[in-house]
Amino acid sequence: MDASPQKSTLSNSPRILAARDTKIVASDVNVYYGEKHAIKHLSIDIPDRAVSAFIGPSGCGKSTFLRSINRMNDTIDGCRVTGDILVDGKNIYDRDLDVVQLRARVGMVFQKPNPFPKSIFENVAYGPRIHGIAKSKTDLEEIVVGSLKKASLFEEVKDRLDHPGTGLSGGQQQRLCIARAIAVNPEIILMDEPCSALDPIASARIEELIDEIRQNYCIIIVTHSMQQAARVSQLTAFFHLGDLVEFGDTDDMFTTPQDKRTQDYITGRFG
Amino acid sequence: MTAWTLLIIAALTAIGFFVGQARAQGLRNAGAASLHSLPAYHGLLMASMALAAAGIATLAVALVAGSDSMIMPAAAALLGTGAIAASHRLITRDFRARNRFEHFVKLVLIACSGVAVLTTIGIVFSVLFETLAFFGEVSPIEFLFGTHWSPTSTPASFGLIPLLVGTLLITFIAVLVAGPLGLLSAIYMAEYSSKKMRGVLKPLLEILAGVPTVVLGFFAALTVAPLIRNTGEGFGLIVASESALAAGLVMGMMIVPLISSLSDDIINAVPQSLRDGSYAMGATKSETIKRVVLPAALPGIVSAFMLAISRAIGETMIVVMAAGLAANLSFNPLAAVTTITVQIATLLVGDQEFDSAKTLSAFALGFVLFCFTLVLNYIALRIVQRYREQYD
Ligand SMILES: Nc1ncnc2c1ncn2[C@@H]1O[C@H](COP(=O)(O)OP(=O)(O)OP(=O)(O)O)[C@@H](O)[C@H]1O
Ligand SMILES: [Mg+2]
Known about the structure:
The complex is a heterodimer.
Chain A: H1 15-19, E1 22-33, E2 36-47, E3 50-55, H2 62-69, E4 79-87, E5 90-91, H3 99-105, E6 106-109, H4 120-131, H5 137-150, H6 154-157, H7 170-182, E7 188-192, H8 200-213, E8 218-222, H9 226-232, E9 235-240, E10 243-249, H10 250-255, H11 260-266
Chain B: H1 2-29, H2 39-65, H3 71-90, H4 97-137, H5 140-145, E1 149-150, E2 157-158, H6 161-192, H7 195-210, H8 213-234, H9 244-268, H10 272-280, H11 285-314, H12 317-322, H13 340-348, H14 357-387
The structure holds adenosine-5'-triphosphate and magnesium ion.
Magnesium ion is lined by residues 62-63, 192 of chain A.
């Protein structure tokens, strides 16, 4: 285990942080896949009620860090996480924290839409059912309809809630997955390249959706599109080879990056 | 004569290849730079023409005049040479030899699958005709709804019901045993076991699948049946020495590997992204398996079960040895029952005249068995279609 105290180059605290509560505090986080050191001494404060974008070249550890926030790394053989990640001040790697309840609070949307082979209704009802959120049938219906509305999918599917979710288009499937995540009332939503399998129009709808719901959630989105990061996020973090190079207000980041590597990446000189 | 004929066919095929190739090569050398097909294809085409012509001639002569006839090699030689001569003239600059040859290959492939299909149809029809002959002697109503089966007594009676009940009873016991065992072990292997454990378990189960059924049969008759009998008698129950339970249990053991191995493959084929989606919702492992993985794998699992059931219904050796011959109409698993397959086997063992109702009844039983598996497979197919969902 590498426990040297050096921290990553955590840049100046973003302006925007001052105005909001911090939701996630990571300090000196290391992630290893067997021998491979995928995240190195990473520290970051992520605010509530805002969208933070993670950018960086392929293989730099964006997904890895994202997965350590809802402990999905636990499901990977040989993956090891050290350091602290606090959500609302509580360490999620504490022994007395149940990962099942953590994941109900931290929703996740994957790169490739992965609706369950169930009806549209059952897809959204999945989380409320397993967590016993709905008290009655009407309650459940309300939750499902509400989530679909928030994910701006309801109008398109309201006549065929009993049809299989896998029968929707790619963009609709991805919005269904967002609705599914929203249905358990998470506080944090992690999105790993949610638009990379979608066409520009479907992507634009997802971006709109993110913009609409960001007031109520702490959203982290991994993206390979600078434009997307600039459009949807208020904060941007730049990762490089397992290091967090720079984290700041999106506007500053894209106009006056502090680090040479950030500048090279966003101007397309490498990556 | 046959050897000579084969030799001639082989020689003509080889000659066809070289002649065709040489002729095309000659054209190319003579300046026809834009030959449509490569010379080798002209050779292959001519060879296949020679082979087909000589082969068909041989078959025709053999059918008409018998395979000892002197005409056979002569006809093969004549038609084979004729085919070479005829196709020799076809080879020109524009001749599309490659396309023709590929068409020929396609025809050969169609013929091969045709043989398999036609054979099956032939078997079905021969069974069907014998069955109809049987129904000339025994009325179908009596056969299908009769509750008494004794083909050797006078007068003989051919009531299917006791055999059907026996078959279903034993199959039911087998599935009752093998269903949970097979499915649960598949879930363990696919979802819970470590790679190493799975590497040991799966081959072991497959060895069990490889045990000859005759071995399982005497295991059932000599070990399991007495065990059940003794245990049952300890409880004051009346147990036949050849009970349906013994046969069903062992038959269940036979189909456990079938179910577990197929289901394991099917569960493994469920994409990891679905599991991830479920875990990310905060579902536990067992919730994920119950609510996502198994429903996604359901069509495949159902068809694995159907396959196992058809296997069990058609299984003969175990029941011949362990289930007994007495055609009792009984739902009691501790009683001796008999099955359709057992009766077919006993009816056709030994000297037979092929026109007695007794022998013909075996065909009728075979036909019933065939219909049974057909219906099962059809149901399995429908279920699979109904539940089929694309994963991605
Ligand atoms: N399951 C795994 N086992 C071993 N190594 C892994 C695993 N997942 C990721 N890695 C390694 O960890 C590093 C970071 O991977 P990660 O997937 O987090 O990158 P990323 O920034 O998300 O890349 P991309 O933009 O291509 O998605 C890579 O070098 C990768 O090879
Ligand atoms: Mg990634």
